[in-house]
Amino acid sequence: MRVLWLALAVGSLGIQAAQPAHGEPDRELRVDYSNPGLTPSTWTLVLHPDGSAHFHSDFGAAAAAASRNDEIQPKNVDKDVRLSDGFTARVFETVRSHHGLANESCESHLKVAFQGWKKISYSGPDGGGTCEFNYSRDKEIQSLGDSFVAVASTIIEGARLELVLQHDPLGLDHEMGYLTEASHDGRLQQMCAIRGILQKLEDDPTIMERVRREARMLLAESSK
After folding, report:
1. Model pTM?
2. Which residues does 144 contact at the CB level (< 8 Å), separation at least 6?
3. How do residues 27-67 score in pLDDT, each as one tens digit?
4. What are the sequence ranges of the domains in the chain?
5. Which of 129, 145, 171, 219 has the most Cβ atoms closer than 10 angstroms to its Cβ?
């Protein structure tokens, strides 16, 4: 009986060793953005190493007129999205190379135009830290902030497309023209985050063919 008990105990330990410990913390990156002069004025993006993410924005009251605020604007956006493996790997590699943002001083304190406050926070089993800035001297950190703003803009634009499709289908031509141009010049990134609405536009035979063609092109680019 004692031999059997020992065998069971050893077997149990072997199973535990082969599995990750319960409650082991996952790595997570959170980006908080605020600019009272824009619509939306604040948003948050939480990203995990597998590319899964959650985005939430608050419409707010813009202190200055946004350049495109005469058009349909989505209110609060709250949704799960998925970003590409390549983008996600670059994000977490940048954070790793900056020691998990521990004791990171990101703000340049230079007299530059206000671009909105970006607060990037990392947490994981290897530690964590926070980096907050309007403009950073560190080119990698500044690039990371710019990329997240472009991704958020893409998600918000996807929410706008949903509304335009519902309330002003003829306006889709203008929206898709902007989407295509901005995706090429970098103002919008990660079209994979809005694959759902792009697929819906491509599949709808009642929509202008040019809109469907642009949606098809963006879908192809998002798969690269």
Report:
1. 0.84
2. 91, 94, 120
3. 999 999 999 988 899 999 999 999 999 999 988 765 444 44
4. 27-222
5. 145
